[in-house]
Write a structure and sequence with these properties.
The chain is an alpha+beta fold. The N and C termini lie close together (11 Å). Strand 5 and strand 6 form a beta hairpin. The longest helix has 21 residues. The protein is built from eleven helices and ten strands. Helices cover 45% and strands 18% of the residues. It has a five-stranded mixed beta sheet with strand order 1-3-8-5-6. Strands 2-9-4-7-10 form a five-stranded antiparallel beta sheet.
Length: 286
């Protein structure tokens, strides 16, 4: 059974101070071992993967993403992903640590996070522009010497790439001005309190909204009640831990406030379709 691995930002064959790195997918595949290819990885950095040729798949949070020329894929810190080497597709990959990330001025406080948009299909003109912006970073990383100005230049180019991408593909970043304030507040508190698995009554009281107001806001954005949004988010994090970590199942349940293992098993079964032990046993296949 392949074991999941935790992966941190570590520029390869570059200066350790490099604030962002552009990697050709073929080069990336040559760097990693067969074990890493067979394993899911939980990353603590950002990735933008832009397919330039061929067709293949990439797994993100248990979803198989089809990649073809023009597909742009984001992988966010905390997500679990798996590189699939066959069939082969070519791509430019930009990676950058959390400390280099520039918050989008229209994005809500909880972005990037769970349920953030992941995949977009770029038309030929936009694809050419995006690849040109990526190439600007690639050229500067080849000149990188670790000096403050070089660091600042690549940070500025990364910021420009993300802002330009948001302008060209506005659906890639949730716009806080288009979302109900109650939903924004609920999502931010949900991420903050995730491991406490708070009740809806407690969250509504802390936020100063009625439960009905939270339900209406969540249904407007997601088509689900606030409780469904919360349970879905908790279930995703539980699944990540069951398949990514080797911690005892009971310990994972306790971390989310389940003092009774049977109640944890019922929650997992209801929201993920299988018992915790079954999900863990099948992790090499997911």
């Amino acid at each position: 059974m392949s074991r999941p691995i935790e992966v941190g930002y570590a520029p390869q064959r570059r200066h350790p101070l490099l604030p962002a790195e552009v990697i050709d997918r073929a080069e990336l595949l040559s760097r990693i071992s067969g074990h890493e290819l067979a394993s899911r990885q939980r990353v603590d950095f950002h990735q933008l993967i832009v397919c330039t040729g061929g067709r293949g798949v990439h797994h993100v949070d248990y979803e198989e993403i089809e990649m073809s020329p023009g597909t742009a894929l984001r992988v966010y810190p905390g997500q679990v992903h798996r590189i699939v080497s066959e069939p082969v597709f070519a791509a430019d990959i930009v990676v950058w640590p959390v400390e280099s990330h520039h918050a989008d001025p229209v994005a809500p406080a909880w972005y990037p996070g769970s349920s953030a948009p992941t995949r977009w299909q770029l038309d030929e003109e936009v694809l050419d522009r995006v690849l040109g912006w990526i190439d600007e970073i690639r050229q500067e990383q080849d000149r990188f010497d670790g000096s403050p100005r070089r660091i600042g230049l690549i940070q500025a180019l990364l910021c420009a790439l993300l802002l330009r991408f948001g302008i060209e593909v506005p659906e890639s970043v949730p716009d806080a001005s288009h979302l109900p304030p109650a939903y924004l507040d609920f999502r931010a508190l949900m991420e903050e309190r995730l491991y406490q698995r708070p009740t809806m009554a407690a969250m509504a009281q802390e936020l100063g909204y009625s439960s009905r107001t939270l339900d209406r806001a969540c249904q407007q954005v997601t088509g689900q009640t606030a409780k469904q949004v919360l349970d879905q988010r908790v279930a995703l994090e539980v699944r990540r831990l069951l398949t990514h970590s080797t911690r005892p199942v009971a310990s994972i349940g306790a971390e989310f406030g389940f003092s009774d293992p049977s109640n944890f098993s019922k929650f997992v079964k209801r929201h993920l379709g299988r018992l915790p032990g079954e999900i863990r046993a099948d992790r090499s296949q997911r």
